[in-house]
């Protein structure tokens, strides 16, 4: 059986800083004569006991091994060569870790065997007498020595700091670049390779003062030249300087009068090129050593934006040429690309400074300029203008909205900036509608109430939404209305369907976040009926967008929307789509069933009745879900409540256990009823109907107001009876002394009660409410009711209204509960 404790995967780190899997095997530790020390050995598991070696690594006493996540050991074997062992089991990892710690004399409880702090402390004591680092003479014969010194200093923070100070103080960089020119003239390949290692090491010193020297106008091209001679490339140097001087061209679309600004732009481009193209990809241990280089580029960009922003003449000329009709297309293309790059640089600014930057551009007329550019035929120019517009909207949407509303007071709807954006979204020629998706996102940001401000003098939300629905919504919905004039979409190709799906997505957003604006538009323009035409599309994603739009409307539970849906029978296309989908279990099926299920669960009464009354025949055979049967049950319960409101009121009281009593004293019958013990109640039990049933006593006695508490109390007591009590009750009720058990059969209709006589005394049984009074004719009372299983939150209100209405009837109510004596 294979020992899984020692089973590991071997990983090495490649140049892209990704871990490469070198294979799976079993690890062991032992003394290797060739390496003169204890070593880690990993043999491939596929080759058995004598399998090939995947790894043979000496456990170096000074190497930093690190244990991670209980099953991983990581270390660096040499420069830019990192290794890792990933164990299948924690026990195996712990076992090998103990061996490593034993060789290095460390406690196995630590997670890293060598700390840089310890090394630095040792160096600090060792170097107390020599605070500086002495560099070898900057000569061709000492380049190899200098390269080794730089490589050995990089792992130690203290030695790295000393090396940086020595290079800076002695003006060493310019001397090295002079040697580079000599080596290049002499075609000294070894010297050029050493200079590559030295200059690369100086970059990793991460010191701003050194970067300022290296990136100066007189030095930067030689620095790039040193980095062309990577030893890993053999004898084939890269041609970075040729690209920068011959291929890359600096285009000054607007003359820059400030030489300092021009030099800063050149420097930033070249340093960015060094970072992206020239320097090799740093390893895991080097990636933090270039943070100062990132900062150098970042602050250069901030400085460039600030200098351009302060140059009013430059910005004035820029926007004047952008909007000038005499400007040729190539020039305008360059101007727009420059402005786009300018706005991209602004993303490096702090939020407050970025806001100031875009306000400056707005004051210079960037939005009118974009309006002119968006009206041009050049697709590339329009694309760059769209990117600039997106920067503006994302940074300050209120500024854009303010411009749009001011513009509407002077221009027609057709040439408004926002309508140009909508038209470009509709007319996007890209088959995948990439530009339309971007523009739809910008429109969504502009109409989002969450980023609209409300001040003491005005409410941006009200003003802008009123403007949008008056001047823009008809442009946005035009493709939808044009394509849904019949029962099926007029055009059902993929690109048109994608466009309509985008428009529906935006309209759905409006339904969710706007109130009366979108409601008025949908109802007045009959938008929902047009949208539901799209459920017949051959593209499922478009049909689902239409269903999602309707689902959002229903989810608002707004009776205005509900009445609109019922009046126009707008569930009909949904039912047709459901039936035409057949028994297929797909998104269409699930989306439609979920819509009906929402109506059922939320008990939307008006829609429930509409669905059952108009579409039940088409849906009654759907048995694989209980949604439609549940809707029918809801409907029947509603009808029962409408036909028998008094029973519904009684049921509400039974559920809530809330009883009302009149403020008056108890009469004799009530006293007898309350004083009766439990046995007496079990022997002879009669419960009167609700108080709003009018029954006149046969003896002609006066009518009294019916109280609801007593019949309910007796009903709750009666629930305790056992089934075995039935015969006893019947027997006793048939042998009442001196009188027969009264029996009334009550049927309720509306607000009046019909009383009919029924003779069989055996009809009285526990669980059927009845009533009787002393001196009344021999009758038995039974009431037939249906018990509802669903609670309705409005029962109490209906009950109060019903009781209040019945108290005004001319027929006197039934007297207080009478008890049957045994």
Overview of the molecule:
- The longest helix has 20 residues, at 259-278.
- A hairpin with a 2-residue loop joins strand 6 (72-78) and strand 7 (81-87).
- The strands form two sheets. The chain has a seven-stranded antiparallel sheet with strand order 4-3-2-1-7-6-5, with helices on one face. Strands 9-8-10 form a three-stranded mixed sheet, with no helix packed on it.
- With 822 residues, it is of the alpha+beta class.
- Residues 116-130, 657-666 and 676-822 have low confidence and may be disordered.
- The protein has 36 helices and ten strands.
Question: What share of residues is helical?
Answer: 40-55%
**Strand content of the residues, in percent?**
5-15%
Question: Which ranges are low-confidence, i.e. pLDDT below 50, for 5 or more consecutive residues?
Answer: 116-130, 657-666, 676-822
Number of helices: 36
InterPro entries: ARM-like (IPR011989), ARM-type_fold (IPR016024), EVH1_PP4R3 (IPR055236), P4R3-like_central_dom (IPR006887), PH-like_dom_sf (IPR011993), PP4R3-like (IPR051137), WH1/EVH1_dom (IPR000697)
Protein name: Serine/threonine-protein phosphatase 4 regulatory subunit 3
Family: Belongs to the SMEK family.
Function: Regulatory subunit of serine/threonine-protein phosphatase 4.
SSE blueprint:
Blueprint lengths: L6 E7 L5 E14 L4 E8 L8 E6 L7 E3 L3 E7 L2 E7 L2 H15 L11 H11 L16 H11 L3 H13 L2 H15 L2 H16 L3 H7 L5 H7 L13 H8 L11 H20 L12 H20 L1 H12 L5 H17 L5 H14 L1 H9 L4 H17 L1 H12 L8 H10 L7 H13 L13 H12 L1 H10 L11 H20 L2 H10 L1 H6 L7 H16 L3 H9 L4 H10 L5 H15 L3 H15 L7 H17 L1 H12 L11 H8 L2 H6 L25 H10 L6 H10 L9 E6 L2 E6 L24 E2 L11 H12 L16
Parallel strand pairs: 8-10
Antiparallel strand pairs: 1-2, 1-7, 2-3, 3-4, 5-6, 6-7, 8-9
Helix pairs in contact: 3-6, 5-6, 10-11, 13-16, 15-16, 15-18, 16-17, 16-19, 17-20, 18-19, 19-22, 22-25, 25-28, 28-30, 29-30, 30-31, 31-36
Protein name: Serine/threonine-protein phosphatase 4 regulatory subunit 3
GO biological process, one term: DNA damage response
GO molecular function: protein phosphatase activator activity
């Amino acid at each position: 059986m294979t020992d899984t404790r020692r089973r590991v995967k071997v990983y090495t780190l490649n140049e892209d800083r990704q871990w490469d899997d070198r294979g799976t095997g079993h690890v062991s530790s032992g003394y290797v004569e060739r390496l003169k020390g204890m070593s880690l050995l990993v043999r491939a598991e596929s080759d058995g006991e004598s399998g090939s070696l995947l790894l043979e690594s000496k456990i170096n006493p000074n190497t930093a091994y690190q244990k991670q996540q209980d099953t991983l050991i990581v270390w660096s074997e040499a420069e830019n060569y990192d290794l890792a062992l990933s164990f299948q089991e924690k026990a195996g990892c712990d076992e090998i870790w103990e061996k490593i710690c034993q060789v290095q004399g460390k406690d196995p409880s630590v997670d890293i065997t060598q700390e840089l702090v310890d090394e630095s402390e040792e160096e600090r004591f060792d170097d107390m007498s020599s605070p500086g680092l002495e560099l070898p003479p900057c000569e061709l014969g000492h380049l190899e020595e200098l390269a080794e010194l730089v490589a050995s200093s990089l792992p130690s923070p203290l030695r790295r700091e000393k090396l940086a100070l020595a290079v800076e103080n002695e003006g060493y960089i310019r001397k090295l670049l002079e040697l580079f020119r000599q080596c290049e003239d002499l075609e000294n390949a070894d010297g050029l390779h050493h200079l590559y290692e030295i200059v690369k090491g100086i970059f990793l010193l991460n010191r701003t003062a050194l970067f300022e020297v290296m990136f100066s106008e007189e030095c930067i091209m030689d620095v790039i030249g040193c980095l062309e001679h990577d030893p890993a490339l053999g004898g084939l140097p890269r041609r970075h300087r040729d690209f920068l001087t011959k291929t890359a061209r600096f285009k000054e679309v607007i003359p820059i009068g400030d030489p300092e600004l021009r030099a800063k732009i050149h420097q930033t481009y070249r340093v960015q090129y060094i970072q992206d193209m020239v320097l090799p990809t740093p390893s895991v241990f080097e990636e933090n050593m270039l943070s100062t280089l990132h900062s150098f580029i970042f602050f250069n960009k901030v400085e460039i934006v600030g200098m351009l922003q302060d140059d009013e003449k430059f910005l004035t000329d820029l926007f004047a040429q952008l909007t000038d009709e005499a400007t040729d297309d190539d020039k305008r293309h360059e101007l727009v690309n420059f402005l786009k790059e300018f706005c991209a640089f602004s993303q490096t600014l702090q939020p407050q400074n970025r806001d100031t930057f875009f306000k400056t551009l707005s004051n210079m007329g960037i939005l009118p300029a974009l309006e002119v550019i968006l009206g041009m035929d050049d697709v590339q120019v329009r694309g760059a203008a769209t990117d600039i517009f997106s920067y503006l909207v994302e940074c300050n949407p209120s500024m854009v909205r303010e411009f749009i509303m001011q513009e509407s007071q002077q221009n027609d709807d057709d040439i408004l900036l926002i309508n140009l954006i909508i038209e470009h979204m509709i007319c996007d020629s890209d088959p995948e509608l990439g530009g339309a998706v971007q523009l739809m996102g910008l429109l969504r940001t502009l109409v989002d109430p969450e980023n609209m401000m409300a001040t003491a003098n005005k409410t941006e939300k009200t003003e802008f939404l009123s403007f949008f629905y008056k001047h823009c919504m008809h442009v946005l919905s035009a493709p939808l209305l044009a394509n849904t004039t019949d029962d099926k979409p007029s055009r059902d190709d993929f690109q048109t369907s994608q466009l309509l799906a985008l428009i529906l997505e935006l309209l759905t957003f409006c339904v969710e976040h706007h109130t009366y604006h979108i409601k008025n538009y949908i109802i007045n323009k009959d938008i929902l009926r047009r949208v539901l035409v799209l459920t017949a599309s051959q593209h499922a994603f478009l049909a689902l967008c239409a269903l999602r739009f309707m689902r959002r409307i229903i989810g608002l539970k707004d009776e205005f929307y509900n009445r609109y849906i019922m009046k126009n029978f707008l569930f009909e296309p949904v039912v047709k789509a459901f039936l035409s989908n057949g028994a297929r279990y797909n998104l269409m099926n699930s989306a439609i069933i979920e819509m009906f299920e929402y109506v059922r669960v939320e008990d939307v009464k008006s829609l429930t009745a509409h669905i059952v009354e108009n579409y039940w025949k088409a849906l009654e055979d759907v048995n694989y879900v209980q949604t439609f049967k549940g809707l029918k049950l809801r409907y029947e319960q509603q009808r029962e409540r409408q036909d028998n409101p008094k029973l519904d009121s009684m049921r509400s009281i039974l559920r809530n256990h809330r009883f009302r009593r009149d403020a008056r004293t108890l009469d004799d019958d009530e006293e007898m009823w309350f004083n009766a013990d439990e046995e007496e109640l079990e022997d002879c039990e009669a419960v009167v109907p609700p108080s709003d049933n009018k029954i006149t006593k046969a003896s002609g006695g006066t009518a009294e107001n019916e109280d609801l508490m007593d019949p309910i109390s007796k009903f709750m007591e009666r629930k305790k009876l056992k089934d075995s009590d039935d015969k006893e009750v019947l027997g006793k009720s048939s042998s009442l002394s001196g009188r027969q058990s009264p029996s009334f059969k009550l049927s309720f209709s509306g607000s009046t009660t019909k009383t009919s006589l029924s003779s069989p005394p055996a009809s009285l049984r526990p669980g059927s409410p009845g009533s009787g009074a002393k001196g009344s004719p021999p009758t038995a009372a039974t009431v037939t009711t249906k018990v509802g299983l669903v609670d309705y939150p409005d029962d109490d209100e209906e009950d109060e209204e019903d009781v209040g209405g019945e108290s005004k009837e001319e027929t006197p109510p039934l007297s207080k509960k009478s008890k049957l004596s045994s």
